[in-house]
Design a protein that fits this description.
By secondary structure, this protein is an alpha/beta fold. It has one domain (81-395): Ribonuclease Z/Hydroxyacylglutathione hydrolase-like (Metallo-beta-lactamase, Chain A, 4-Layer Sandwich). 34% of the residues lie in helices and 16% in strands. The protein contains 13 helices and 14 strands. It has helices spanning 2-6, 19-69, 124-129, 142-145, 148-155, 163-173, 236-240, 245-254, 283-286, 289-296, 312-315, 318-327, 352-359, and strands at residues 85-90, 96-100, 103-107, 134-136, 158-161, 180-182, 193-196, 203-208, 263-269, 272-277, 302-306, 331-335, 369-370, 386-388. A hairpin with a 5-residue loop joins strand 1 and strand 2 (96-100). Helix 10 packs across helix 12 (318-327). It is globular. It starts with a helix and ends in an 8-residue tail after the last strand.
């Protein structure tokens, strides 16, 4: 017994615990209590960090939305955008951050870079913080869609385009998965029209048309003979905004991105209708019936349309003009005319006299008001393209 007590062992048949064992029990209870307190503190700390992270993310979204869409149209507490406005904020080529009936979306998804860096005053992180619900693609070339996969992954946005656009985006996103919906049948011909249910309160129509392409001079067009639309290139952006290696690598990686067919999009909210086409193809030669499809669309108030294309050398601005004639908007906003690829492109202001001359071929009573945007001063400048959907102007 003495030996058992000496080693702190319990005697069979009961009896009180030795003093040493009782001390160990007390210390063990204390340690368990400390561990429980520590675990509770750790959970509280994790919860606090999570709350701070969510608050920080929400704050970033409010801040970038106010910058991109205008402070007066964005709720400072929630980040909600005025549903009575359609606001477009240009970030190069035909890429726009858009607020349509209160929904935040992207029209195309590429920040121009590669030959330069920082010419366009918005970043990849900014566009993710914007928290767009959808990314509408016109076609899949790099200058329109090279950022679509990472932006969809980062923001949770759903990409809308052709099935071919989705195939390319999913491949670029691997091994991650993203949400992408083809809104027209794969391989469907130009002139295919589909209604798209994506944004509550907004009527959306997708029309397959034709990407820009070179054709022989059109001698029968009223504007013939067309002078080549080749304004002098501008390398100032390269000199002032030297390219970062990662941006050049990004450009090289995406140079071979496929078109995947081309869609134009029409959005109607309230009394206002916006049409956006990120390319203007030679419909006269390749799909003349599409001109009838465009004429049959609901009346368009504002058309935002690409003017730079492969046919401008032989047929000038004929193709963009033919789109305008068929769509007949009240306001026309040329795009895809900025210095997105110095050497191939130039500053938008050098295209202004060229498109003005072409639009003058349209009878004055049918000619739209020209709302010209120029780079870099009109990048991320929402006041230039803010429209009140309830304005009586659209009914006039």
């Amino acid at each position: 017994m003495a030996a058992l007590r000496m080693f702190g062992m319990r005697q069979r048949g009961g009896g009180s615990a030795p003093a040493g064992e009782e001390r160990y029990r007390t210390e063990d209870r204390a340690m368990r209590s400390h561990r429980r307190v520590g675990a509770a503190c750790a959970l509280a700390a994790i919860g606090t960090v999570a709350v701070i992270s969510v608050q920080s993310s929400a704050s970033a979204t409010v801040a970038i939305r106010q910058r991109v869409f205008g402070h007066q149209y964005v709720d400072a507490a929630t980040g909600a955008v005025d549903a009575d406005k359609v606001i477009l904020s240009w970030f190069g080529v035909t890429n726009f951050a858009a607020a349509i009936g209160g929904h935040v979306v992207l029209l195309d998804a590429w920040i121009p870079r590669g030959e330069y860096s920082g010419y366009v005053p918005i970043t990849h992180d900014d566009l993710i913080a914007l928290q767009p619900s959808h990314i509408f693609l016109g076609h899949g070339h790099f200058d329109h869609a090279a950022d679509s996969a990472p932006l969809a992954l980062g923001s949770g946005a759903t990409i809308l385009g052709t099935p071919e656009h989705c195939t390319q985006a999913r491949r670029q996103a691997m091994p991650a998965t993203l949400s992408c919906e083809g809104v027209v049948p794969a391989g469907s011909p130009p002139g295919t029209v589909e209604d798209v249910d994506a944004l509550d309160g907004v009527t959306i129509t997708a029309v397959k048309h034709v990407h820009s392409a070179a054709e022989p001079p059109d001698s029968e067009d009223p504007g013939a003979p067309h002078r080549p639309s080749t304004p002098l290139p501008d390398f100032g952006a390269v000199v002032e905004h030297l390219p970062a290696p990662q941006d050049t690598a990004h450009l090289i990686t995406h140079l071979g991105d496929a078109e995947g067919d081309t869609i134009l999009w029409q959005f109607t909210v309230g009394d206002f209708t916006l049409l956006w086409n990120d390319s203007a193809g030679p419909l006269e030669e390749r799909a003349p019936h599409v001109l009838d499809v465009l004429r049959a669309l609901p009346e368009t108030d504002v058309q935002v349309g690409a003017i730079m294309g492969f046919n401008q050398i032989t047929n000038g601005m004929r193709d963009p003009r033919m789109y305008v004639e068929a769509i007949s908007p009240k306001i026309y906003v040329p795009s895809h005319h900025d210095n997105w690829a110095p050497g191939v492109s130039t500053r938008g202001e050098r295209y202004r006299p060229i498109i003005e001359e072409e639009l003058a071929l349209i009878p004055a009573a049918e000619r739209p008001v020209l709302r010209f945007i120029s780079d870099p001063q009109d990048y991320v400048r929402p006041e230039v393209l803010t429209f009140d959907v309830d304005s009586s102007y659209w009914a006039s």
